[in-house]
Amino acid sequence: MYKKYFPKGFSKGFLWGGATAANQVEGAWDVDGKGLTTAEVVEKAKSRTDITLSAVSKDSIEKAIEDKTTENYPKRRGVDFYHNYKEDIALFAEMGFKAYRMSIAWSRIFPEGTESEPNEAGLAFYDKVFDELAKYDIEPVVTISHYEMPLNLTLKKNGWIDRSVIDDFLRFTDVIFKRYQNKVKYWMTFNEINAAIWGGFVGTGSVDSDMSESEQLQLRYQALHHQFVASAMAVKQGHAINPDFKIGSMLARGVSYPKTSNPVDVRAAQFVDQQNLFFDDVQVRGEYPDFMNRYFAENNIVIKMEPDDEKIIKEGTVDYLSFSYYMSNVTGAVKSDNETVGNITEGEPNPYLETSDWGWQIDPIGLRITLNELWDRYQVPLFVVENGLGAVDKLEEDGHVHDSYRIDYLRAHVEQMKEAVKDGVDLMGYTMWGPIDLISAGTSEMSKRYGFIYVDQDDDGNGSKKRIRKDSFEWYKKVIHSNGEDLK
């Protein structure tokens, strides 16, 4: 039957908010029994184009362990959300946040990752954070594993390549699901799970920098398989503890357009797209797609599975699909020397698009395209949990940051989300990245700023850490108040 009605805007319960990660905002890296994490041994980059997430070796880890400072490891200091969470959450509430996406630092709960009993001080900290959010009716959306794991699991097991880490992870999820079952409804298992392949160490916790490319691929896909199994088991575990839990997957979505209408370019772009969506095929559909089985065979990649793994993955599909979206790029059949690297994506620049200070191509319409493609493919609720503009903000003499460029970027993306909703896409919410300035994931810079809230801290950690509202703060407040209708 023809359906005459279509949505005219965002749903009444739309989850407007912002997103951060524990290792980028919390700081307090050696406080209250917290253990060292994989994120805290990644050195800061020497330049904006120097992505250091996977450039980790046994020697560099030993060096990091000996270094007890934050100078070369800015994620250890973050922006001190650990001691400022009340002030920061109050600012989120002032904007009208309906949701705050955050992560729980695994090593605050299990410092070594292998303990039988959790660290009560770590659990108590998140109790306080969730209670503060509840005071303002802000829904927590919790990422369980966001680019960090207890470093001990790397030192003793080389991360997710060791299947026993599944048990360590499930011990962690069992504790937090039970502890916060009445405080948290929305969860996601792994942040940008495709980082396991693109970034190696940052996603797997496995050191593979001394391996050949073929050896790296074998290790990374095997480690990823263990994450798929762990995620599926956690979904089932969480639903048993609280049937009302909504547990999702999270992908770094990279849209790639064909360089030309030549079919070979179209197929090249389609292949890149398949490589990106395969992760959701497993977590949403519950099985490895045939095109990846062919890829494994042609690249001599052998995924070692236990007898029940396929059944576990099939039974542990997620409730919703969340993703990050920052940019798009172009793919041709012939690899070009003129490639750009963005958020777990790489390809040729698009001559029709502008770029950010970091060379990321700004493509709002690509977000509408993505939402429609994901909805058509999976037919599960979608959630945009990262989208934002990293820029060099300047604190002016008048004491303000006039970031009209950020407003323009976000406005254009929200407009395209609204169009996707009108197209019929089931969209749960939008948590932009990141509402408060934080340490960059890729380069550990502070000067790459995303927030509505300026933090007075430079790349070397100097500054008062004072929080200052940017112009975009008031703009987003208006957007939320009008449920996305007032975008001026």
TrEMBL record:
Name the Pfam families on file: Glyco_hydro_1
Positions the record marks as coiled coil are: none
One GO cellular-component annotation of the UniProt record comes to: cytosol
Annotated active site residues, numbered on this chain, are E386
User: Which GO biological process categories is it annotated with?
Assistant: carbohydrate catabolic process
The yes or no answer to whether the keyword Hydrolase is present is: yes
Keywords attached to this entry: Glycosidase, Hydrolase
GO molecular function terms listed in the Swiss-Prot or TrEMBL record: beta-glucosidase activity
The protein's matches in PANTHER family, at most eight in alphabetical order, are given as: 6-PHOSPHO-BETA-GLUCOSIDASE ASCB-RELATED, GLYCOSYL HYDROLASE
Q: Which family does it belong to?
A: Belongs to the glycosyl hydrolase 1 family.
Name this protein carries in UniProt: BglH protein
Species, as recorded:
Pediococcus argentinicus
